[in-house]
Every structure is written in structure tokens, then in C-alpha cells.
Write a structure and sequence with these properties.
MFS_trans_sf, 556 residues, globular, Sugar transport protein, Glutaredoxin, transmembrane transporter activity, 4-stranded mixed beta sheet, 25 helices, transmembrane, membrane, 4% strand, 6 strands, 72% helix, Growth Hormone, Chain: A, mainly alpha
Length: 556
């Protein structure tokens, strides 16, 4: 009898390991692609958007990144509906294939130099397909693990999904780093394709494992009793109880979690390389090491959420992020590039111009040309990552630039470059002047906040929705917030910086959404969980055309 119990326990453990492997490999793939594209945004700007200015090209590359996110809610509705009606397993097998083929395809694309304007169109099409696939991936993975897990361990089990997301980003950074070292100057020419082509190996492994796992026992029980939803999208969007939960998920959970997480995972690297002018390899090294050290914190946060609840952990970190993001990034500047901070204090740069001659630096259609001295000056400053302020001049006055007490004509860019150099503005940050212990600590602090919010997120979302519509109801608000709030975070923030000249002005974006989530979540996010009908309610009494009542258990 004892041997039988041991065998059953061992079989369950083996089955759970396969469930975790199946779900987490998809997340690994998702975040590998996410960070790969984000890390190589500068390369994409030159390879696919070289028909516009350098600053505009970089923002367009980030917009292509964001467009993939914008298509995610579409995928969430398509695959969420399939997952609630036909099953979790086969649905997120399809999402894996779509996601993997789209990532692999990026490595095979022709560039702008080869096919002109067709190149960015092809890139955007692949990003859209990628986004649609990812739209059904996260929800499927979170639900698949949660519905195989004991309810009192959902936080700890689903947090592995979040941790493996970090592994995917770590892989992306490591592979890019190794490829840069191996290919040298050839990396920007053709070597950037290799990390995308290598994803084919991960795709094959993921498909094999997903084919070998069993369907969610909760879904099978609902299907056996005929209680799966016949219209999960309608139930989610037209029944107030479910729609309210979806709105809370968007504004009281995912919006803030997304910006807090992306601040550490992607905006930080852009800030270090473009705004603070750190060498790209060196900046990647700093982020890579801290990311690896912080990975166990995701599981730790998930375990802790099973004890203290998801709400205080997530909302507390969002609040801390909103209150500390500006001083944290100012401290990062002081530690990483003290020369820039000193130059900004001793020789502040001011652009004095007739404002009617200055264009908006972010031209969405890419048609505006730097026809005026004001535009040319601002493009130069944005390209070099030099902070500046704007000052209005009289109508018709010539554009001038003050660097400290010295004034330069806007028409003389060569003289302006020399003046900026004399004022302490360097092309690259001096690595010997980096305060490493302080910089390590500040980056780690950002990753701690990311772990506290992102680690328990999957369990918090699963807790919000009843099982019969959970795939749709969880996936849609998650991807809506992650896609619109998170996907356009880098491009909007850097467009704000390009327009204002203030390297910190883009931080208002994450500060706003993290504070909004802290407030909305505090007021409306339940402190408990919606119970699974198949486990805690009588499924036989649930109507065929509606969700069962959302019974809430305290203390989750």
C-alpha cells in the first residue's frame, strides 16, 4: 500500500513537472523574442527604417515593437474563446506554433537596403502575427499551471512562469552578447539574424513537450458535465460581474505591473545606452548580471503571495515605484555617467528659437524634414543624448543654442559640437568613472520591484475569474493592458524625451500608470479569489448560458 502511494505521488510530481515545462517553455519563447527585439531596436532602426532621421528611425523601431503588442488583444479574444470552448492544451499549442514561426521569420527578412519600404511592412506583419500568437499564450500558460495546482500553492506554482520569462530575457541578452563577441563588426550587418534563427530549436522542443501533456483536469470536468461556456466573449464583456473584474485587471493590476516590470527589463537598458551613453556591451553586462541574480525573487514573491495575499505585494511595489522612479533614475545618472550630470549642471544647454519654426520631433508619418535650424539642432541633441531646455525667441529670430554662458548659432552645427565637447558632453560615458556598487544596487532595486509585481501576477489574475470563461476573461484584459500600456511605453517615453529635451521626462509615463494601479487596485481589487466552479461549487447547478456566481474566498 505504501509503495502504491509512493508511485501515485511520484506520477503526480512527474506530471506536474511536465505541465510546468510545457507552460514555461512557451513563456520562455515569448520573452526571448520580446527582449531580443527590444535589445536590437537600434539595429532594426538602421536595417528597416533607414529612410528617416536616426532619432525617428529608432522611435519607429520601437513602434513596430509596440504594434506587436497592440495586436495581442485580438489574439487574446481569438484564442481565449477557443481555450474556453475547446480546451487549454490544443489552443496554446497553436499559439506556440504561430509565435515561433513569426520569430523565426524575422531572421529571414530582407532589409530596407534590399527591398526598400517593403522591409518595414514585412517586419510589422510578422510583429502582428507574433502579437496575435502571444495574445493567447500567457493566459493559456497561467491557467494551465493554476488548474493543475493546489489552490493554496497557485502563487508559488504560477510564479515559475514569471521566472522563466526572466530566463528568456537572460537568454536573449546572453546570445546577443555572445554573437556580438563572435561576429564583431559583422553583427550589425548580418549577425543580428542568428539569435532569431536559433529560436527554431526552442520551437521544436516546446512543441514536442506540449504534445505530451494532458488537458487541464478542471476543464475536463466542466466539459464532461456540459458546463463549458458557449459564448465566453459575450459572458466576459456583457455580464457586469465579469466586465468589472476585467476592468479591475486592466487598471488595478496589469497596467501598473507592466510599466514597473518594463522599466527594469527594457527601458533601463535604453536609458543607459541612449541617454547616458554607456557602451552597449557594458550596459548589457550590468543588466544581465542583475537580472540573473534577481530571478529567484520571482518565485519568492509568488510563494509569499500564497501567505500574505497578492494585493498588498503587487500594489505596494507599484506605489513604491511611482514614488521613487525619478530619484532612482537621477541616482543612476550620477553613478553611471557623472560627467553628464556635471556638464548638465555647469554648462546647461538651452535651445532658443522661434517656436513656429520648430517641428514636433516625433513625426508619426515620417514625412517631416529637418528644414529649420531649430529642427536640426534638436535632432543633433537627441541623437547625442544631450539634455536641453527650450526657450521661446521673438518671431523671426535666428535659432541659437546656449551651452553654459556661450551662445552658438543654430546654423553652425560643427561649432556647436565643439562647444558641447568643451562643456563636458562626451560621445561615450567614461567606464572608469562608473560607481559600480551604487549602479549595481540601483539596478537591483528596480528588479526587486519588478519581481514583487510580476511574480504573483498570474495567480492574481487567475483568482479574479471563474473557470468557465477564464481563458478569455484573463487573456483579454491582460493583453489589452500589456499591449497598449506596456507595448508603447518605450516609444512614447522616448518621443517625450525627444520633444522636451529632458532625459527624465519619459518617466512620467510609468509613474502615472503605476500610481493609477496602486489607487484603483487599493479601492477595487478583491482581497480574495473567485472559486473554481468544478472544485467549490455545484457545476450541475450552473446555467448553460451564464457564469456561475463569483463566490469569493478571503485571504488569497
Amino acid at each position: 500500500m505504501e509503495t502504491l502511494k509512493t508511485d501515485v505521488h511520484g506520477a503526480k510530481q512527474h506530471s506536474m513537472r511536465r505541465v510546468l515545462a510545457s507552460a514555461t517553455l512557451g513563456t520562455l519563447f515569448e520573452w526571448y523574442d520580446f527582449y531580443l527585439y527590444g535589445t536590437l531596436a537600434t539595429v532594426f532602426s538602421t536595417k528597416f527604417f533607414s529612410g528617416v532621421s536616426e532619432t525617428a528611425a529608432f522611435i519607429y523601431a520601437l513602434l513596430a515593437f509596440g504594434i506587436g503588442f497592440a495586436s495581442r488583444p485580438i489574439g487574446a479574444l481569438i484564442f481565449g474563446r477557443l481555450g474556453d470552448m475547446l480546451g487549454r492544451k490544443h489552443t496554446f499549442l497553436i499559439t506556440m506554433i504561430l509565435m515561433g514561426v513569426s520569430t523565426l521569420g524575422v531572421g529571414l527578412l530582407p532589409t530596407y537596403a534590399t527591398v526598400g519600404g517593403v522591409a518595414p511592412i514585412l517586419l510589422v506583419c510578422l510583429r502582428v502575427l507574433q502579437g496575435i500568437g502571444i495574445g493567447g499564450e500567457y493566459g493559456g500558460a497561467a491557467i494551465f499551471v493554476a488548474e493543475h495546482s493546489p489552490r493554496n500553492r497557485r502563487g508559488s506554482m504560477t510564479s515559475w512562469i514569471q521566472l522563466v520569462g526572466g530566463v528568456g530575457m537572460l537568454m536573449a541578452l546572453a546570445i546577443v552578447f555572445l554573437c556580438r563577441q563572435l561576429f564583431g563588426a559583422s553583427f550589425d550587418d548580418w549577425g543580428w539574424r542568428v539569435p532569431f534563427l536559433l529560436s527554431g530549436i526552442l520551437l521544436a522542443i516546446s512543441i514536442y513537450i506540449r504534445l505530451s501533456v494532458s488537458e487541464s483536469p478542471l476543464f475536463l470536468k466542466m466539459k464532461t458535465q456540459g458546463k463549458t461556456s458557449k459564448a465566453p466573449i459575450r459572458e466576459t464583456l456583457t455580464q457586469w460581474r465579469n466586465l468589472k473584474a476585467a476592468l479591475i485587471a486592466v487598471f488595478g493590476l496589469v497596467g501598473g505591473v507592466t510599466v514597473v516590470t518594463y522599466t527594469a527589463l527594457i527601458y533601463l537598458l535604453f536609458f543607459l545606452t541612449r541617454s547616458l551613453r554607456l557602451d552597449e556591451t557594458l550596459a548589457t553586462h550590468y543588466v544581465l548580471v542583475i537580472m540573473a541574480c534577481a530571478m529567484p525573487l520571482y518565485v519568492g514573491a509568488g510563494v509569499l503571495s500564497d501567505w500574505v495575499g497578492r494585493k498588498p505585494l503587487i500594489l505596494g511595489a507599484c506605489l513604491v515605484s511611482a514614488l521613487t522612479i525619478f530619484p532612482t533614475f537621477r541616482a543612476i545618472t550620477h553613478a553611471a555617467n557623472p560627467a553628464l550630470e556635471a556638464a548638465r549642471t555647469s554648462h546647461p544647454v538651452t535651445v532658443v528659437a522661434d517656436q513656429s519654426t520648430c517641428s514636433v520631433q516625433f513625426d508619426l508619418l515620417g514625412r517631416a524634414k529637418a528644414a529649420s535650424d531649430c529642427d536640426r539642432v534638436k535632432q543633433l541633441l537627441a541623437k547625442e543624448g544631450i539634455p536641453y531646455t527650450n526657450e521661446a525667441a521673438e518671431t523671426g529670430a535666428a535659432t541659437t543654442v546656449r551651452v553654459g554662458d556661450v551662445t552658438f548659432l543654430g546654423a553652425g552645427l560643427a561649432a556647436l559640437r565643439e562647444g558641447l565637447s568643451a562643456g563636458g558632453y562626451r560621445d561615450k560615458a567614461d567606464p572608469t568613472r562608473i560607481d559600480k556598487p551604487v549602479l549595481w544596487s540601483l539596478i537591483f532595486f528596480l528588479f526587486v520591484l519588478a519581481a514583487m509585481t510580476y511574480g504573483p501576477l498570474a495567480a492574481a489574475l487567475v483568482d479574479l475569474f471563474p473557470a468557465r470563461i477564464r481563458y478569455t476573461a484573463l487573456s483579454f484584459p491582460y493583453q489589452l493592458a500589456a499591449g497598449l500600456v506596456g507595448g508603447f511605453f518605450p516609444s512614447i517615453s522616448f518621443a517625450i524625451v525627444a520633444q522636451t529635451g529632458d532625459i527624465y521626462s519619459g518617466l512620467w509615463y510609468p509613474a502615472f500608470f503605476s500610481m493609477l494601479t496602486a489607487i484603483v487596485g487599493f479601492l477595487f481589487l478583491p482581497t480574495g479569489r473567485v472559486e473554481d466552479e468544478a472544485l467549490d461549487s455545484d457545476l450541475a447547478s450552473a446555467p448553460d448560458n451564464a457564469s456561475s456566481p463569483a463566490k469569493v474566498t478571503r485571504g488569497a
